[in-house]
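Dear colleague,

Following up on Tuesday's group meeting, I ran the structure prediction for the two-component complex that the binding team flagged. I've pasted the input sequences exactly as they went in, so you can double-check that nothing got truncated or mislabelled along the way. The structure tokens for the whole assembly follow below. Feel free to forward this to whoever is handling the docking comparison.

Inputs:
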Amino acid sequence: MKKPVQTYSAISESTNFHERRSLWHRIKLAARKSPYTARFGVVVIVLYVLVALFAPLLAPYGEAEVFPAAYEPWSSTYIFGTDQIGRDIFSRMIYGARNTVGIAVATTVLSFLIGGSLGLAAAIDRRWIDQILSRSVDVLMAIPSLIFALVLLSIFGSTVLNLIIIIAILDATRVFRLTRSVAINVVVMDYVEAARLRGEGISWIMRREILPNILPPLIAEFGLRFCFVFLTIAALSFLGVGIQPPTADWGSMVRENANLLQFAQYDLRSGLTPLLPAAAIALLTVAVNFVVDWFLHKTSGLRDEQ
Amino acid sequence: MSNRDQKGNVLLDIKGLKIDGFSDEKWHEIIKGVDLTLRRGEVMGLIGESGAGKSTLGLAAMGYTQPGCRITAGEILFDGSDLAQLSESEKRGLWGNRMTYVAQSAAASFNPAHRLLDQTTASTIRAKIKPRAEAHSDAKTLYGALSLPDPDHIGDRYPHQVSGGQLQRVMTAMAMSPRPDLIVFDEPTTALDVTTQVEVLSSMRAIVEEFNTAAIYITHDLAVVAQMADVIKVLRYGEEVEEASTRVMLSDPKEAYTKSLWSVRALEKPAQKPSDTLMSLKGIDASYGTIKVLHQVTIEVPRGSTVAVVGESGSGKSTTARVITGLLPQLAGSIEFNGEALPKKLSERSKDQKRRIQMIYQMADTAMNPRQTVRDIIGRPLEFYLGMRGDKKEARIVELLEMIELDASFLARLPGELSGGQKQRICIARALAAEPEFVICDEVTSALDQIVQEGILKLLLRLQDELGLTYLFITHDISTVKAIADQVVVMNQGEVVEQGLKSDVFQPPHPDYTNLLLSSVPEMDPDWLTNLSRQRAETAS
């Protein structure tokens, strides 16, 4: 405890000083206080990532390896049976993690790069840049995004690259709006004015003065946006314009095996087959949401009443 | 309720109160055993610097602790019952009924979606003290007593439709509406201009006297507390320094700490010889959109001196600063700096011109990026303007920190880990890092406590002496002007009313506006407000 001193000194003013903690220590602290839902979410996400990374090692057969046995039931050779042209469903599920999740992550990252930087630029320059960007975004958002994506994909063709670019641009509109609205509150701060007076360029102000202060809502949005992108890709694949065969993908796997559902009355397990990729999609979406919820609660500054 | 009118009975009795605050995963004691006795009809002033525990104690007097705080020992006897033992719902029955609270920032405390009259009477009606119609007509009477304009209809407005000073008075009316036994005022006039402050203070004092209400008045402004309080209690580090009646405390403080608080106001800069002109504004007109805010502003700033710009909010002081910095290009007129014309727009100025003019802001909190360390904040101008890197930069940062009386231990701290005074010092260091000639100080001390203010002012004077800096010092506080200025410019409604040497401007005769401004500055005399109100009433009639 400080002793009361009679003379004033700038160093001895009372402050709210925090001890420096290492990153590892802070992670441990956060983990100890985290709710069970968040722990569950983290475990699931880590599992998906591992499966995606080590898919060739984990899968018993190749991604598009065809066996002369279509619609095989569940067995020790083919754990979840085979599909309409005799590919092992279990292997395709494992490769699907790599393709579906990988493409979704790439799309989300791209949409954040586009939407985030344009949103920041619009927030800093509130004049014509903001007007042009905001009105164009309004136009894009006025068209239902799934239908718009279908139209664009049929025009440009369903390659993986087109898929990523089209969905990223459509989703960037949402990211743009969020970034712009949170950044506007930061742009009016005196420290941004101070940086401007110093003569800093727009990119420094964006990266160093504003971005660090709006990161928490953006990270949370990243999680949610990933879920939506993931679901959009799955939906497009289900409709047949998403990820194209022979690439394994959960959305198209649901479509290809959908007719197996009607065999459930004869063999329950084969009826379950088309639900497996659907369940994989659902589980990841729920897990990501759990983690995002926890993160939002932690960074919102809301404290539970003691 | 029966002994409400009996002045002198003990209303609130706090004994050995200890409160802990939770931060950094640990509990820290923030109130370390304070006793407080308040009688009916008595006003107690609580003073001390920030972090002294004034607000925590003020809230604890109502039995309330902020989230993250807990009462660990002691009792709070309010009219016989111990608030520390009461349940939350029992306390809620007292709050907004027998005890009320007036917060520092009225603007942030009102609900923008409801009319003032409904907010004023909400707790009175809820507590069933008066029926709705009666509460409303009573509120109008209170508005009148607080000298609000058009008391019958002002309650129909929304919070954003009245001024800050008016809102603060509406909040006092709200606190008064249930006719409480106790009101806690937490720095209610800190955010107001001097001219408004006088009106708010006199109406608050009148109404507290009229209804014989006990009050706790928390402030760091000694002159204000001298007008309001019967008794003054000085706090420091969560402990009582001393307590005495206002007159005794002002004339004969016992403790060295209290004496040091009192001596702050004595700081005065000796007059300086005028030298050549560094910056001159000639006939500046400026506007925000279509609203014209500056009319023909002409100011001369001699090299190495301090020119103070005074006036209340809306007078165009800060706009003048924005024109000088280039953030708001002027519509007419010219600015000369070092004998050459300064381009209107910031983007047209050279890096060197930007470097020579630096700015220090009022709110050090918002002037520093909360995610950057002190090292980054001070280091950036060094790197940006002077191209310093590595060890050379680090050494210069430490040198600058020492110049502002801090040390290398602050390098890794974030702004949130600094006190108000330290933050402002870091902002000063950031301005100094650019090696400027001209520094604009926009109300740099108005958000700080008295002692901290003095420290900052002394620092600025010393730096001026050592580095030959020229200051344009924007303020509404006349005692600050006396402490630091060589020349004074008085502004009102976008025009320069008077300018000249400090000694000339502060000598009568004054233009009317200067007179009003100077006479509104509270003095350390308990009779000052009474005398002033009488004087003004006489002139008016």
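Residues 202-239 of chain A form the longest helix (38 residues).

Cheers,
M.
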